[in-house]
């Protein structure tokens, strides 16, 4: 009777050990799933190819309607408006909102995606800045972007971009001028029949309240539209208008005050009697020496400025 009891005990012990092992494996699997940036079923859907998810197609292409993409911009910084190159520097957070029903999920909260490889497998708008000379994404210390997917498929894509924007300034009233500069944003590949770009309804353009510039003051920011008809079709477009006025303190201190003082000093000659003068002598007087040195310094400054200006434009010639 002892052997059957031993076999029964070992049989129950084996089942209990197997149960503990399976429970531990399930717990580890759940823990791993929590660290996955997107649910496993969504990852499988993105990996299944065009039969399930086609990242080349807009979310509403199958129903023949354009996909609505709403934009918002937060201006983190803005650089000097350079008159010699007719441009200015801009650092912004660009937020894009759209809805992709194909990415709807059954999670209770939105999904955060921080992996650019996963982002590249999801359709997202190909907006660009039409009048930017150069533009670049920020990669330090990690790529500066995030993508949120709500359970109903609503998506927020936020990224940081720095750029140099062209601005054709009218300098007729310089330095008492004000300028209108704009940033044009539109899709590169999708016309208005496939993608429509709009500003968000509430505060589409906001800025850092601590922004200061040495040469310009931001008067107001105005959102606008710029839908255009091109040879390839009609393209949806929005604009961010910057109305700036030039800061006068620098020009008052460096230009207006010195020239005004020179003019005022020249008026002192009106109180001098034209017949009052020193007698003409054959030797040099101390006043003549003082005037000669003063004129020499004036011409020396002009020559020095000419040489420095030339070397800066053409390189050192020594």
From TrEMBL:
<protein>
    <submittedName>
        <fullName>Neurotransmitter-gated ion-channel ligand-binding domain-containing protein</fullName>
    </submittedName>
</protein>
<dbReference type="InterPro" id="IPR036734">
    <property type="entry name" value="Neur_chan_lig-bd_sf"/>
</dbReference>
<feature type="signal peptide">
    <location>
        <begin position="1"/>
        <end position="27"/>
    </location>
</feature>
<keyword id="KW-0472">Membrane</keyword>
<dbReference type="InterPro" id="IPR038050">
    <property type="entry name" value="Neuro_actylchol_rec"/>
</dbReference>
<dbReference type="InterPro" id="IPR018000">
    <property type="entry name" value="Neurotransmitter_ion_chnl_CS"/>
</dbReference>
<keyword id="KW-0407">Ion channel</keyword>
<feature type="transmembrane region" description="Helical">
    <location>
        <begin position="286"/>
        <end position="308"/>
    </location>
</feature>
<keyword id="KW-0406">Ion transport</keyword>
<dbReference type="InterPro" id="IPR006201">
    <property type="entry name" value="Neur_channel"/>
</dbReference>
<feature type="transmembrane region" description="Helical">
    <location>
        <begin position="255"/>
        <end position="274"/>
    </location>
</feature>
<dbReference type="GO" id="GO:0016020">
    <property type="term" value="C:membrane"/>
</dbReference>
<dbReference type="GO" id="GO:0004888">
    <property type="term" value="F:transmembrane signaling receptor activity"/>
</dbReference>
<keyword id="KW-0732">Signal</keyword>
<dbReference type="InterPro" id="IPR006029">
    <property type="entry name" value="Neurotrans-gated_channel_TM"/>
</dbReference>
<dbReference type="Pfam" id="PF02932">
    <property type="entry name" value="Neur_chan_memb"/>
</dbReference>
<dbReference type="InterPro" id="IPR036719">
    <property type="entry name" value="Neuro-gated_channel_TM_sf"/>
</dbReference>
<dbReference type="Pfam" id="PF02931">
    <property type="entry name" value="Neur_chan_LBD"/>
</dbReference>
<feature type="domain" description="Neurotransmitter-gated ion-channel ligand-binding">
    <location>
        <begin position="51"/>
        <end position="218"/>
    </location>
</feature>
<dbReference type="InterPro" id="IPR006202">
    <property type="entry name" value="Neur_chan_lig-bd"/>
</dbReference>
<keyword id="KW-1133">Transmembrane helix</keyword>
<keyword id="KW-0812">Transmembrane</keyword>
<comment type="similarity">
    <text>Belongs to the ligand-gated ion channel (TC 1.A.9) family.</text>
</comment>
<feature type="domain" description="Neurotransmitter-gated ion-channel transmembrane">
    <location>
        <begin position="274"/>
        <end position="312"/>
    </location>
</feature>
<keyword id="KW-0813">Transport</keyword>
<dbReference type="GO" id="GO:0005230">
    <property type="term" value="F:extracellular ligand-gated monoatomic ion channel activity"/>
</dbReference>
């Amino acid at each position: 009777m002892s052997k059957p009891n031993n076999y029964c005990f070992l049989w129950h012990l084996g089942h209990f050990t197997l149960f503990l092992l399976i429970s531990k494996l399930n717990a580890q699997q759940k823990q791993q799933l929590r660290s996955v940036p997107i649910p496993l079923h969504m990852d499988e859907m993105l990996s299944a190819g065009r039969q399930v998810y086609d990242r080349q197609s807009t979310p509403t292409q199958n129903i023949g309607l354009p996909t609505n993409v709403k934009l918002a911009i937060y201006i983190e910084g803005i650089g000097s408006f350079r008159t010699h190159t007719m441009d200015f520097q801009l650092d912004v957070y660009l937020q894009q909102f759209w809805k992709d029903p194909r990415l709807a999920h059954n999670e209770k909260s939105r999904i955060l995606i921080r992996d650019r490889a996963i982002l590249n497998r999801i359709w997202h708008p190909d907006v660009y800045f039409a009048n930017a000379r150069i533009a670049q994404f920020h990669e330090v210390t990690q790529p500066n972007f995030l993508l949120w997917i709500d359970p109903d498929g609503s998506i927020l894509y936020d990224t940081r971009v720095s750029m140099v924007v062209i601005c054709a300034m009218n300098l007729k009233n310089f330095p008492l001028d004000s300028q209108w500069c704009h940033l044009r944003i539109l899709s590169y590949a999708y016309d208005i029949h496939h993608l429509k770009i709009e500003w968000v309804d509430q505060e589409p353009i906001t800025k850092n309240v601590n922004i200061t510039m040495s040469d310009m003051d931001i008067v107001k920011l105005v959102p606008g539209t710029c839908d255009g008809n091109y040879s390839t079709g009609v393209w949806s477009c929005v604009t961010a208008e910057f109305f700036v006025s030039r800061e006068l303190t620098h020009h008052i201190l460096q230009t207006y005050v010195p020239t005004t003082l020179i003019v005022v000093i020249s008026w002192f000659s009106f109180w001098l009697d034209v017949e009052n003068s020193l007698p003409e002598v054959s030797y040099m007087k101390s006043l003549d020496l003082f005037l000669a040195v003063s004129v020499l310094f004036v011409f020396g400054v002009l020559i020095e400025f000419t040489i420095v200006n030339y070397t800066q434009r053409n390189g050192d010639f020594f």
